[in-house]
Amino acid sequence: MSPEAALLVVRFVHFWAVFGLFGTALFGLYAGGAARALVAPKLGGPVALMSITLLGSGVIWLLVESAHFCGDWSGATDADMIGCVLFQTGFGKLWMWRLLLAASLLPIATMERGPARDGLLIAVSAMLAGSLGLTGHAAMDTGLRGALHQADHAIHLLAVGAWLGGLLPLARLLAERPAVEVRADALHRFSTVGIIAVGLILVTGIANATMIAGSPIPSLATAWGRTLAVKLLLVAIMIAAALVNRLILMPSARYAAIGRLVMLEQALGLAVLAAASLLGTLPPDGAM
Questions:
Q1: Euclidean distance between CA atoms 192 and 206, whole angstroms
Q2: Is 7 in contact with 284 (CB distance < 8 Å)?
Q3: Would you put residue 120 in left (φ > 0), alpha (ψ -120 to 50) or beta?
Q4: Which end of the chain, N or C, is less packed with Cβ atoms under 10 Å?
Q5: Mapping DSSP to helix (H, G, I), strand (E, B) and coil, where does residue 104 land?
Q6: Confidence band (pLDDT; 50, 70, 90) for 286?
Q7: What are 35-52's pLDDT values in tens digits?
Q8: How far is Cα 214 from Cα 40, in angstroms, rounded to an integer?
């Protein structure tokens, strides 16, 4: 596997861990007391897993970037090359702080559950999700435009984490089959958060595409544009599934069907993350 292909894989895994952790932590804040009490005893496992995955994939991402800079895999084990990436590139300087934040997650995840632990988990996972907006195409802009682009991208990623990441604990909650009122309350709360998140995703996504390619409409003449078009189609299907849940299935309390659609949304969300992983490595003008 080439460093370029490995970068796609590690980006996808890292995105899954970051967004899953942030969405799970946020779900614990808004899902409602009864839902929190039901999910809380099992949160330690997934949270710890995602914390370990986030740190591990972050380290591997750094090594793969070093190999990418070098042009072959020897860069992944070359201390001088790794040091050059860490201390002489904007990516490396940001990554040092992100790895320190990621290293703090496991101790936080294993703390006794309470307001302090939950607040720390939300804060750290939010910083890790939002700081991804300082990388990729957004990092190429400078000055005021660069600051606006990075802020827009950070908000976009936080909204993605709230929506896609929140599907993980929601699916687990529905699988537990708690009392009808608990499921109804948690679903309505998640749906409300999801509406806000989707609105932010659409607005910031349009702005992001415009700042990168000059237009919110993807050009099918480039690999970047085609990948963005696929991503938009997947998001549109996810939104349609969410609307079916909100407008048709939730009012009739068809929880089995809701659970199946939530699983479909999760699968589509993984495909969206795969497309996003590829987008960050493609030039929007088609140049290679």
A1: 22
A2: no
A3: alpha
A4: C
A5: coil
A6: low
A7: 766 665 455 578 888 889
A8: 45
Q: Which residues have C-beta within 8 Å of that of residue 237, sequence separation ≥ 6? A: 268
Half-sphere exposure of 12 (CA within 13 A, CB side): 15
Report the C-alpha gap between 206 and 11 in whole angstroms. Answer: 22
Phi, psi of 218, rounded to the nearest 5 degrees: -70, 140
Amino acid identity, position 244: V
| 169 contacts: CB under 8 Å, gap ≥ 6 | 23, 24, 27, 28, 31, 39, 43, 46
Structural domain boundaries of the chain? 3-279
Interval 64-83 mean pLDDT: 84
| Inter-residue contact 23 to 169 (CB < 8 Å) | yes
**Distance, CA of 280 to CA of 7 (rounded, Å):** 10
Beta-carbon contacts of residue 119 (< 8 Å; ≥ 6 apart): none
Q: Where are the alpha helices (DSSP H) in 31-166?
A: 33-70, 79-88, 90-103, 105-109, 115-131, 143-160
In the structure encoding, which two tokens stand for residue 86, read together?
């860490």
Contact 121, 114 (CB under 8 A): no
pLDDT interval class at 200 (50, 70, 90): very high
Dist CA 196 CA 194 (whole Å)? 5
Report phi then psi at 149, rounded to 5.
-65, -45
Amino acid identity, position 201: I
pLDDT of residue 90: 85
78 backbone φψ class: left, alpha, beta (φ>0; ψ -120 to 50): beta
In the prediction, which pLDDT does 41 show? 43
What are the C-alpha distances in Å from 35 to residues 96, 157, 167, 179, 222? 36, 25, 14, 10, 45
CA distance 156 to 141: 17
